[in-house]
Design a protein that fits this description.
This protein is mainly beta. It has 2 domains: about 1-265, no CATH class; about 275-395, no CATH class. It is built from 2 helices and 26 strands. The chain has helices spanning about 135-140, 360-370, and strands at about 1-5, 15-20, 25, 55-60, 60-65, 85, 90-95, 130, 145-155, 155-165, 170-175, 175-180, 185, 195-200, 200-205, 205-215, 220-225, 235, 245-250, 260-265, 290-295, 305-310, 330-340, 355, 380-385, 390-395. The strands form 9 sheets. Strands 2, 14, 15, 16 and 17 form a 5-stranded mixed β-sheet that branches. The protein has a 5-stranded mixed beta barrel with strand order 21-22-23-26-25. The N and C termini lie far apart (about 75 Å).
């Protein structure tokens, strides 16, 4: 018997999962538990994977390009399903035909997850990433700024999202989900598959989903049962994560979806620029150095202050820079930023750079006086600037 998902286009909702769907779905649950040719227990599930991802900025939000696999790891390829997660839980479940979680348990947890938001302690995202908020997923569904199309990538059906301004894009595979009652898979086959992606925000009684399918663009959100196993596509921790108070009346239908009318007021902690201006791109060239860098006075590890150089002469020259701009702008840091600094010792002798953690970098910048408001200069270095973020900082020797 054919099954159809009744959807409601919503505005201003509260807690989300992204949903990618195909139409005319046949046989909602599959026969995963068939003993014939069934996969065996994976003893390494949750122990290996990829921990870094460059990410891509779409409508002001930096998204990972791959789903979350085991907690702390990304899937190997953008079209890989990764693992399924129940809302506000850090235990991942296999997305093939065997029911098994990252604790190597095979008994499904049918209890309803607790909590009013996805707690950081339960976030399965790799270091520097987190489950997206409602507002961040809403930006992905903004048809005025983001185009979406149902497509196939390396044989996997899903939806491609493209920023209309920058052309940046990412692919979300339609991996279906796991039923809240018994963990059986549903809506996971070919062009008729659905995709569901959690958000961290919850509107009582259930988290919401943003809904789109093969022949219809993304709607604004539908609620889905929190005990279901759905996919996670995380965002960079440095993104602005607004805190919202919402009052909403919600009516859930038989599929676990709900329509809602909501009024929201949001306060966003976005990175501000001097006089409200935008930071000019820092040129990635072959020159010796390309930026002067300072540590913000109140640093939260998400950005640095920098002046990009238009020109650089060899160290010791009469004029090292030819930058007409003397304003330090705020440049976001990649969640996986690489820092090679700490070249000068306490007596000012050059000892060579070393890889540093963010905390070590901050301590060094403060020791050298490269701090906002303390000096007019900063650390001279070469930064790699990609997709509106600094991905690498290398301190340069200046005699």
């Amino acid at each position: 018997m054919k099954q159809y998902l009744k959807t409601f286009v919503l505005t201003g909702l509260a807690a989300i999962a992204v949903t990618i769907v195909g139409v005319n779905v046949y046989d909602r649950k599959d026969s995963r538990r068939s003993s014939e040719n069934a996969p065996s227990i994976d003893e390494n599930l949750g122990k290996t994977g990829i921990t870094t991802d460059q990410g891509v900025v779409i409508n002001g939000v930096r998204w990972a390009t791959r789903n979350v696999a085991a907690p702390g790891y990304f899937a190997e390829k953008p079209e890989d399903a990764g693992l399924y997660y129940q809302w506000n839980r850090k235990v991942g479940w296999r997305s093939d035909r065997l029911l098994q979680n990252t604790n190597r348990e095979t008994a499904w947890d049918a209890t309803a997850p607790a909590g009013n938001k996805w707690e950081a302690a339960n976030d399965p995202s790799p270091n520097g990433w987190r489950v997206p908020s409602f507002d961040e997923i809403q930006k992905l569904a903004d048809a005025k700024k983001v185009a979406s199309e149902w497509t196939t990538q390396n044989g996997v059906h899903g939806r491609k999202f493209t920023d209309k301004t920058t052309g940046n894009s990412m692919f979300l595979p339609a991996a279906g989900g796991l039923d809240k009652s018994d963990g059986s898979r549903f809506n996971c086959s070919g062009n008729e598959a659905y995709g569901y992606y959690w958000s961290s925000t919850k509107q009582q009684p259930e988290p919401y989903t943003i809904t789109f399918w093969s022949n219809v663009g993304p709607g604004k959100g539908n609620a889905y049962w929190s005990g279901s196993g759905l996919s996670v596509r995380c965002v960079a921790s440095g993104n602005s994560n607004s805190n919202s108070n919402r009052n909403s009346n919600s009516n859930r239908n038989s599929n676990g979806n709900s329509s809602s009318n909501s009024n929201s007021n949001s306060n966003s902690n976005s990175i501000t620029q001097p006089n409200g201006s935008q930071p000019p791109p820092i040129k990635n060239t072959n020159q010796y150095a390309n930026a002067n860098i300072q540590l913000p006075k109140n640093w939260d590890k998400t950005f640095v202050l920098a002046i990009g150089f238009d020109k650089w002469e060899e160290p010791g020259g009469d004029d090292t820079t030819d930058s007409k701009n003397e304003t330090f702008y705020r440049y976001p840091l990649s969640p996986n930023v690489i820092i090679e600094a700490g070249g000068f010792d306490t007596e000012g002798s050059w000892k060579g750079t070393r890889k540093m953690t963010l905390d070590q970098f901050a301590a060094y910048m403060r020791k050298m006086g490269y701090v906002e408001g303390k000096n007019e200069f900063g650390m001279v270095g070469y930064v790699t600037y990609q997709q509106s973020m600094i991905t690498k900082i290398v301190e340069k020797y200046i005699p």
